[in-house]
Design brief:
The complex is a heterotetramer of chains A (293), B (298), C (438) and D (380). Helix content of chain A is 37%, strand content 22%. Chain A is of the alpha/beta class and 293 residues long. Chain A has a 6-stranded mixed beta sheet with strand order 6-7-8-3-9-10, with helices on both faces. Chain A has a 4-stranded antiparallel beta sheet with strand order 2-1-4-5. The longest helix of chain A has 15 residues. The chains are: A alpha/beta (293), B mainly alpha (298), C alpha/beta (438), D mainly alpha (380).
Chain lengths: 293, 298, 438, 380
């Protein structure tokens, strides 16, 4: 439980300055603009007037100690959590906060979950097929698939290196392969903004490396927001990093700058956790409310 | 006004019966996520235990109305039903954890089996349990407001069960282990708690409470092989409305359903009253799918 | 079809096919079920006496030595609490008849089926008895619903059903003999009795199904004719066990008699809770038409002492036939067993059929029906006579008061058997019932 | 219908055209079953044919439940209601035909003097027969929309549909003037002018039921093989991922639930004229659970499983109750326990040799094992 006093301590001028950069920046280069977003669960404020924005084609890493509100932020962008106040403007105009989840996907927002979320009893190919079909009219659900679509699926499988396993039941894949499959399912939908919640959690070193490269190639063509605890991974692949703490943006910039920010250091140390979190810890499922316990 | 006062009491009394039948379910369904459709048959076991005990006692003492026999029947019913529950858990349920819908089908089979067993042992017709003399009669509050002793006794019994359950769950080591397993199975297991043992115990406890309910129900209702079927659905509705795993929620739900049912039934008919209550519960779940009491988030 | 499950290798296809064929054979075998000879009659309760005599007679070769008869009651499900006893009584009658040389020198062979308290099952089993087993007659049914479900089957297959329970009347099927009371042999005289006793404020309480609703329709007409109106009418779902609110309503309506048409288990709850509420038969008497000695056992005699019941027979009915019947019944099924009206009606139904067959000299349905007209039998409850047209029986109406040992003291009877009048043609206030009912 | 990618390797290795393998593996078993059922009336007595005809309506019903339970993972314990509604719609038509313009008998007993307005349209076959599908589908659609919108799944869905069974059966029993009460609606004389009880009519009804069963099978097979079918399986595996793939699971589930209910209704419509009665006992809690048992015994998620399960369990029920009228419920109880415990993938699973192992999706049930962690079945 983090007390009110602690919260006051961490609301420093520095963080306000960082927020300022995002405010009113909804120009045509901004794909996502979160404005004064507040969410609370059972009276505990998880996001506190949060301001945050991202540009087209940008790959952003989101870090912060436990209970900082990272997953809640992603939840609210994807419609899973409804905010108490504030707006989330996407792609030049749409307010996301009152939309149903599946509509947000149709707008072009894809989300990867912490634990791989795939269809275990369908084949890898069929997994992508289901993901691809989301824009179809209901009537076309009853037909077979077209060759153009088949090509798309194969191309995506190539991208996530699962071509060989196309006809295997997805439930039999390794953990890392499942994560890639899930990423593949997002890619095949060609989203404008991709949200990834700890994509390398539970992966081996080699798999992490491969995933990082995959992320970079994805990030070159679209906007990607990655929540990650693995600092080594962040250091290796991040360009811009946003630090979230107690429901506010604490610091923003490249990894170097952020790491040197005294507020950030204090936030991590003050919370009793080191910057180098272990993989095991970061793969623990967490909900915003857990911070209250 | 006496009509309303007596209706209030009727509502309370119905609530106490609902709670008594639902309490065991709140454990097995609420805490273990086992849909035990044989719960009604454990109630039946309690009722027949009371009957059998009374027959035996009457045979030796010649006095079927002995109040002592009935008092002894309460713990004996608990033990018999708990033993049956333990057997069922060990032989069937334990293979089905994590498959709640399958527990539903299997326990349905168990229920059929137990009903037929009762029919084979005690015969198909209803049997009778003679209520002890001290439970007959009424307590008169005013001249027009008479409260049946049996109803008061059942309300007291429910309170006693709740008290005992509270003490068990929060004051005993066994109960602490149980709560631990229910909240985080893996963690409890890694701390050396035998989750197998706790599962069997919890299920037996839930069945035992059904047995107590069966014993009490002999006072006011029929005692036959299909006795359980009269109570099981209402009990499930109470647990669902209360919210899974929430004993306080179950208590609240029993009170609400009992009161509403009584009011509706008084205002309309028994049939319409029942339908209205179910419809309201479904509508309520639209609004709050988790029931009255939400389990804490993880 | 989902591919990963289904597409096993083609190589194993042959063996799978074989297995499937075996499975199909199994299906058909089961569907053909017991083409084998039916199970011999055996008492359903473990406690009961040995099987009916002589049913072990060799099947096909000497088939003309036996006559097959069916018994179809609910042996499982909620209705089994009432129906098993009737089933027992019918078996007793068949045993007695077999022991005495059978019907026309032939032994009766019983085929027992379980209606399972489910009406479509009654229809299915009735069809099975008639078409597969080709039984000469079926004794069975309890609820009106089960009779209504069986009726078209008996009519289409030209079978014969003896139905042993009092019912709501308004029915005459050419293929059914009704050995229980119709309304003018139970409900109508009961209301008349109560009116004569000076009761004016009737409260009608029943389970929510056809018998109570039709009965109350008739009672309301009857009260109307007497210039009265029921002070309350209440129905509870079948299997209802919570009566405190209903009792509050009754109290508020302040009747001087409750006319009770509740069914089965609900009676147990109602009477226990009525007594708990401090209402004795002295304060407020009830008259029940579905509570007999068997039900009283389950209710507990002390809970229903001094309340009234209307029937055609009580275990205490003082006839030599009854003394013999009660003794035989208890000898076969146990000292603590009781007899009651439907049990008696089930029992003498078998004898009525025997008499008709012997008179007709054949088990042919048309011949038996013709011969049955006017046949009489000295039943435990007194003389019964099959009516010439409507195939109901004349029986004596009795009203009794429950004793604290569970037996019933007769306090009034109709003197002579009352002729059955299922459409109440002979009552002016009931005019129009027949036209509308047909 | 089957994507080439998913063909098992063993099939690829054989010198046969691959489509032949597909056809054989997918269609051989159903064709054999169909052939047996077509031939059955030649081998069986009238009574057994009528009985088998009843089982076939149960097979259709089981298939409708299998569609939503076996594939989409939603166990409805209210399917008896939909079956019953279809049966009642048909019964209303038959009763009006039999009454020949007069008021049906039970209405009179209950004090009605004229036909209720909603009964009137059912005298026309062209309204009554579509209604056997439409009425249950509409009820399921309405309830499904409410339930799925609030993301009620799993155990909760099962219990809510069970409550539906209770409410509807109480309502039907209570509304005697309009529904015939406990008795239900019975005693029909003719269907389209033919005597309903004549052996010829019954044989025609049998084949009509068989044809409906075959059509339903084809419909389900086509659905399952389509993208829609994949989506159903996908929802069973991970509803959240379906939602975050841009679909609206509530809409998809409502559609399939309504479709399933409609099929159940058609099964009920075929049941009524063959058995000669429809009553609220069919809509209560007990039959609805039994339907699930048929599917479980036959094999969940296998189309043919539902058919085999329905016929076998009901055959066993009839056979056992005929041979052991007093104690047959022991066997039934044990069969149910065994079906779940010993061969969870059902008879079809046993036949395919996957016998005692259980399918992956069953072991990893969608519901978290213990309720103390967030509520099972309710995704918030």
């Amino acid at each position: 439980m983090i007390g009110r006093r602690a919260r006051q301590i961490f609301q420093t001028p520095a963080s306000h300055a960082a927020n300022g950069a995002g405010l009113g920046a909804a120009d045509d280069k901004t794909i996502l603009s979160v404005e004064k977003l507040t969410i609370s669960f059972d009276g505990f404020t998880v996001l506190n007037e949060l301001d945050f924005s991202m540009k087209y084609g940008e790959m952003r890493f989101l870090i912060g100690p436990n209970g900082a509100g990272k997953t809640t932020l992603i939840d609210s962008i994807t419609g899973k959590s409804k905010p108490d106040r504030g707006r989330i403007v996407f792609d030049g105009g749409t307010d996301l906060t009152r939309q149903q989840e599946h509509r947000l996907v149709r707008l072009g927002i894809g989300r990867k979950f912490q634990t791989p979320s795939i269809f275990g009893s369908l084949t890898v190919y069929q997994n992508l097929e289901v993901a691809l079909g989301f824009r179809n009219r209901i009537t076309s659900l009853f037909g077979g698939i077209r060759s153009r679509e088949s090509d798309r699926i194969m191309a995506t499988l190539e991208e996530v290196a699962l071509v060989d396993r196309a006809s295997e039941v997805a439930g039999s894949l390794s953990h890392g392969e499942k994560q890639w499959l899930e990423i593949g399912m997002l890619l095949v939908q060609e989203p404008k903004l991709l949200l990834m919640d700890e994509p390398v959690a539970g992966m081996t070193r080699r798999e992490r490396e491969k995933t990082g490269e995959l992320l970079q190639s994805i990030g070159s063509t679209r906007s990607v927001l990655v929540v990650e605890h693995d600092m080594e991974f962040v250091r290796r692949f991040a360009q811009t990093v946003t630090v979230l703490h107690l429901g506010k943006v604490l610091s923003e910039g490249d990894m170097e700058t952020v790491q040197r920010d005294p507020e950030v250091v204090r936030a991590y140390l003050g919370h009793g956790a080191s910057g180098n979190r272990t993989v095991a810890e970061s793969s623990q499922p967490r909900r915003g409310t857990a911070a209250g316990v | 006004m006496e009509v309303w006062a007596s209706q209030l009491f009727n509502g309370l009394s119905l609530s106490s019966i609902l709670l008594l039948t639902a309490l065991g379910l709140a454990l097995s369904f609420g805490l273990m996520n086992v849909i035990n459709l044989a719960h009604g048959e454990f109630i039946m076991i309690g009722a027949y235990t009371t009957y059998a005990l009374q027959q035996v006692a009457a045979h030796y003492t010649g006095d079927p109305q002995s109040g002592i026999t009935f008092l002894i029947a309460i713990p004996v019913s608990f033990i018999m039903a708990a033993a049956a529950g333990y057997l069922v858990e060990v032989s069937v349920i334990r293979f089905l954890y994590r498959r709640p819908l399958d527990t539903l089908l299997a326990t349905w089979g168990v229920g059929l089996f137990l009903q037929q067993l009762a029919r084979s042992i005690f015969g198909a017709p209803n049997v009778q349990v003679v209520a002890p003399a001290w439970l007959s009669g009424t307590v008169s509050v005013t001249s027009g407001l008479l409260l049946p002793m049996k109803r008061i006794f059942i309300i007291g019994l429910v309170l006693a069960c709740l008290g005992a359950l509270y003490l068990y769950m929060y004051r005993s080591n066994e109960g602490r282990r149980m709560r631990g397993v229910m909240q985080n199975r893996e963690m409890a297991s890694s701390l050396g708690v035998s989750t197998r043992r706790v599962d069997s115990f919890t299920f037996a406890l839930g069945s035992g409470l059904a047995g107590v309910a069966g014993c009490a129900l002999t006072l006011i209702g029929p005692i036959g092989p299909s006795l359980g079927t009269f109570y099981i659905v209402d009990a499930f509705i109470v647990v669902i409305l209360g919210g899974l795993g929430q004993i306080p929620g179950t208590i609240m739900a029993a009170l609400i359903i009992g009161m509403l049912n009584t009011v509706f039934e008084f205002g309309t008919t028994a049939v319409v009253g029942k339908v209205l209550v179910f419809a309201m519960v479904i509508l309520f779940l639209q609004w709050k799918p988790a029931g009255l009491m939400r389990a804490r988030g993880r | 079809m989902s591919v990963p499950y289904l597409s096993k290798a083609l190589g194993s296809l042959t063996s799978n096919t074989l297995k499937l064929l075996a499975g199909l054979g199994l299906i058909l075998a089961v569907a053909c079920g017991s083409e084998a000879p039916p199970a011999p009659a055996s008492a359903p309760q473990g406690s009961a006496a040995p099987a009916a005599a002589a049913v072990e007679s060799a099947p096909a070769a000497e088939e003309s030595d036996t006559i097959k008869v069916g018994i179809l009651h609910s042996l499982s499900g909620t209705m089994s609490i009432s129906e098993t006893a009737v089933h027992d009584a019918e078996l007793l009658a068949i045993d007695e008849i077999n022991a005495a040389g059978g019907v026309m020198g032939k032994q009766l062979e019983v085929v027992i089926e379980d209606g399972a308290s489910d009406w479509p099952t009654f229809a299915e089993k009735a069809r099975k008895l008639l078409q597969e087993d080709q039984v000469a007659v079926v004794f069975g049914g309890w609820t009106s619903a089960s009779r209504k479900a069986m009726l078209p089957v008996f009519e289409a297959n030209d079978g014969l059903l003896f139905y042993p329970v009092q019912y709501e009347g308004l029915e005459t099927s050419p293929n059914i003999f009704y050995t229980g009371a119709t309304t003018n042999q139970q409900i109508v005289p009961a209301v008349e009795y109560l009116l004569n006793e000076g009761k004016t404020k009737f409260y009608l309480l029943g389970s929510d199904y056809v018998f109570p609703r039709t009965s109350n329709l008739i009672i309301n007409k009857q009260l109307e004719a007497a210039g009265l109106e029921a002070v309350g009418e209440e129905y509870t779902p079948l299997g209802h066990t919570e009566y405190s609110t209903v009792i509050s309503k009754i109290r508020a309506a302040d009747p001087d008699i409750v006319f009770n048409t509740l069914n089965g288990d609900s009676n147990v709850a109602f009477f226990k809770q009525l007594r708990d509420a401090g209402i004795s038969a002295e304060d407020l008497p009830t008259i029940s038409v579905s509570v007999a000695e068997e039900e009283i056992t389950g209710i507990g005699a002390d809970n229903i002492t001094d309340h009234l019941v209307a029937w055609n027979y009580f275990q205490t009915t003082d006839t030599p036939e009854n003394a013999k019947f009660v003794q035989a019944f208890q000898a076969k099924y146990g000292e603590n067993r009781v007899t009651d009206d439907p049990i008696e009606a089930g029992y003498f139904g078998v004898y009525l059929w025997k008499a008709a067959v012997e008179k007709a000299g054949s088990t042919d349905v048309a011949a038996v029906k013709e011969a049955a007209k006017g046949i009489t039998f000295a039943a435990p409850g007194g003389m019964v006579t099959i009516h010439n047209e409507n195939q109901h029986v004349s029986k004596t109406v009795r009203i009794g008061k429950v004793r604290n040992d569970g037996q019933i003291d007769e306090i009034w009877n109709s003197g002579a058997p009352v002729s059955p009048d299922p459409y109440l043609d002979s009552y002016e206030w009931a005019s129009g019932l027949r036209e509308l009912a047909q | 219908m089957i994507s080439r990618l998913s063909l098992p390797n063993a099939v690829k290795g054989l010198p046969l055209p691959s489509w032949l393998g597909d056809v054989a593996s997918v269609w051989l078993a159903p064709i054999l079953v169909l052939a047996a059922l077509v031939a059955a009336p030649l081998l069986l007595s009238d009574f057994r044919v009528a009985l088998l005809g009843k089982f076939l309506t149960f097979a259709i019903l089981a298939m409708s439940l299998n569609l939503i339970w076996g594939y989409a993972g939603m166990l409805s314990l209210g399917h008896g209601v939909f079956f019953g509604l279809g049966g009642y719609a048909m019964a209303m038509f038959l009763k009006l035909e039999s009454a020949g313009g007069k008021l049906p008998d039970f209405m009179f007993w209950s004090g009605l003097t004229e036909l209720p307005f909603f009964w009137a349209p059912f005298q026309y076959a062209w309204i009554a027969i579509p209604m056997t599908f439409v009425v249950p589908a509409a009820l399921a659609g309405g309830l499904g929309y409410l339930v799925f919108r609030s993301r009620i799944t799993g155990v909760y869905f099962a219990l809510i549909t069970q409550a539906l069974a209770l409410i509807v059966s109480i309502l039907f029993i209570g509304q005697q003037p309009y529904t015939g009460g406990t008795n239900g609606i019975t005693n029909y004389t003719t269907i389209f002018g033919f005597a309903i009880n004549s052996p010829t009519t019954q044989i025609v009804l049998y084949y009509a039921t068989l044809a409906t069963l075959a059509l339903t099978y084809l419909l389900c097979a086509w659905l399952i093989a389509s993208r829609f079918g994949r989506l159903l399986v996908a929802m069973r595996d991970d509803e959240n991922r379906v939602r975050f793939s841009g679909y609206n699971p509530a809409a998809l589930k409502t559609i399939v639930f309504a479709l399933s209910a409609g099929i159940a209704g058609v099964a009920g419509a075929l049941f009524t004229p063959q058995v000669g009665i429809i009553s609220p006992t069919m809509m209560g809690i007990v039959p609805s659970i039994e339907i699930a048992i048929w599917v479980a015994v036959g094999g969940r998620g296998v189309l043919l499983g539902a058919i085999v399960g329905a016929i076998l369990v009901n055959g066993a029920k009839s056979g056992l109750s005929e041979s052991f009228p007093a104690i047959w419920q022991y066997f039934l109880g044990l069969l149910f326990i065994g079906a779940v415990l010993v061969f969870p993938s059902g008879i079809m699973g046993l036949l395919r040799g996957e016998g005692w192992r259980r399918p992956e999706w069953l072991a990893a049930d969608r519901l978290p094992g213990f309720a103390a962690r967030v509520l099972p079945g309710v995704k918030r």
